[in-house]
Amino acid sequence: MLRRAKELHDYKLGARDGEVGKVKEFYFDDQSWTIRYLIADTGGWLSGRRVLISPYALDPVDEGGKVIPVDLTRTQIEKSPSPSTDRPVSRQFEWDYYSYYDWPAYWGGPYPWGMDGYPTRGRQGWSDASRRHHAEGENTHLRSTEDVTGRDIQAQDGEIGHVEDFVIDDETWAIRYLIVDTQNWWPGKKVLISTRWIERISWEESKVFIDLTREAIRRGPEYTEETLITRDHETKLHRHHNRECYWADEPAGKSTQ
Questions:
Q1: CA–CA gap between residue 177 and residue 144 (Å, rounded)
Q2: Which of 32, 99, 117, 189 could form a disulfide with 251 if both were Cys (CB 3.0 to 4.6 A apart)?
Q3: Which overall architecture, per CATH, does domain 149-249 show?
Q4: Total-model pTM
């Protein structure tokens, strides 16, 4: 199911033996545009440290109860490696974190989750590729949704708006779209921009560059808070921009956990 990131903010995180906090924000990989960690606000329980929870640990979202079930115990989370609060997440931290839980490295294969298109529990061990990347000290490319929110969108021929929110697939944990507010050009209008149409993020210029023209965006389907992002809506959006739908070349079917 596709969900807005802000919709998931303040959802409770329910471990096997009790609540561990609420969703604060997300870290995503700005190359694959996949959520790698939920950042938890644990209140006073583990204050003073960042608590990261990988989608590997998550069960389907309980929309009615506004809970994201976490298949871990509070003790496991408390004893898990924690990144420095004043530094970016390093590959060394990720190595320690994934080793602690004995999960496969997402960077160890050709798909968004290593050897799979989904964060599938049950696969264990480390591939040669993941070990090589770790040894080479590869950049993690992790960014926070909070940091990218508000950044300007640069089309082929000029600025077009700013990032307001993210649309997340809660099965694959891929970011499918940016919700872009274009109110400086067309009052009140918001649009969806597929992450596949993003060329790069310039942190120095505080801009997200996309491979579309301003006019194409202006004439495209409008997004509102009431819009249901159905497969039909997505197909219409992709056809308007003459782009292939993302599901055309993804691994078919979800692996059994």
A1: 15
A2: 117
A3: Alpha-Beta Complex (3.90)
A4: 0.89
